[in-house]
């Protein structure tokens, strides 16, 4: 069996459909969410506020005015992500409850994916002083991504038995990093060679944003064609139409939430440490450009390195989990994350080698911690509430972290520097590690009524 092949007990057609949705949405996550859009939106906002793009030596200190509030152009993208995730806290649980009662999960997932892909494609029109359009499209793209992932993550339980989920989840993440790497490499060529192609730098960036939307939308056709729809099972009996049933199921789950203390403890731990992970990912390109003074080409090359290493890191963490269990493997990854944010604070400006070394370290732990968190959480979910619980899980998932981006934006606004903002993120990994160490996985799996895997 190859390193990316389906486990023997998993349907091969569905395995490929599941894995290639990670491939599809990673084009958006890397090109838009991680590398290009936050710095580009910051530049558009700075131009609107100051009439020029800020630099490390001469930053833009004029605020934008939104609903009577003064917003720093350098913090705009992070505040947009914060608002999107606060809205997700209200919207995604309803999406999850609907998905648990829907016999067409596949269609629901792909519908959200295509709506998000359309928002990403429309980013090609963000130029001049259209920072408000950019903020709106980023909001919609992140909300649709989170909604699609709620349904997508719940499908893992449908296609893989408990002992296969670490492998399937890790390999799907590996596919995602491979897909993100390929698209980002293409975009690196476009942005780097924009003069030779007869394009301005801004035009090259906007075309790259368009490519991410097209990539996401077109590759979503594969899971649409290969995944199977299944009738809902073991749902909470609630009367009324689908919407009323979904809200009823959500309220019933919230009323009985204390019956699953280990599930909730894991969820809270994940909320903290994943906020840290997602914030590091989403702010890395802005930190590299605005604080360390690197050009866009260097930033894309660094993210390419992260994507390439993360492909192998996700597979390696899957192997570690088979030997040491997913919980202990995740905890080891969190220790590495703490070292990373401290190193980020100390990075010297304009020196590429230390920046690349930090990217290498991020790549090693990035995919593994996220993939194993998904499969570990799937073991703790009561039957019939899979998508609903994953909707809560997605509130802190990639591209939708809120507390981390809020802290990062506020610390930057108060200090005028990104260095104290990056090191402040270490608290999320410390709290997440302490809480995760208190989770009794065996007890949680029993409480949820699920089959015990051989190793947790």
UniProtKB/TrEMBL annotation:
Organism of origin: Kribbella voronezhensis
One CC-aspect GO term: plasma membrane
Annotated keywords: Membrane, Transmembrane, Transmembrane helix, Transport
Taxonomy, superkingdom: Bacteria
Name of the protein in question: UMF1 family MFS transporter
Localisation per UniProt entry: Cell membrane
Domain Major facilitator superfamily (MFS) profile: 262-456
Regions that span the bilayer: 76-95, 107-126, 132-152, 172-193, 205-225, 264-286, 298-318, 330-349, 417-437
InterPro entries for this protein: Atg22-like, ATG22/LtaA_families, MFS_dom, MFS_trans_sf
Molecular function per GO: transmembrane transporter activity
Protease is among the record's keywords: no
Alphabetized Gene3D superfamilies for the sequence: MFS general substrate transporter like domains
Membrane topology listed for this record: Multi-pass membrane protein
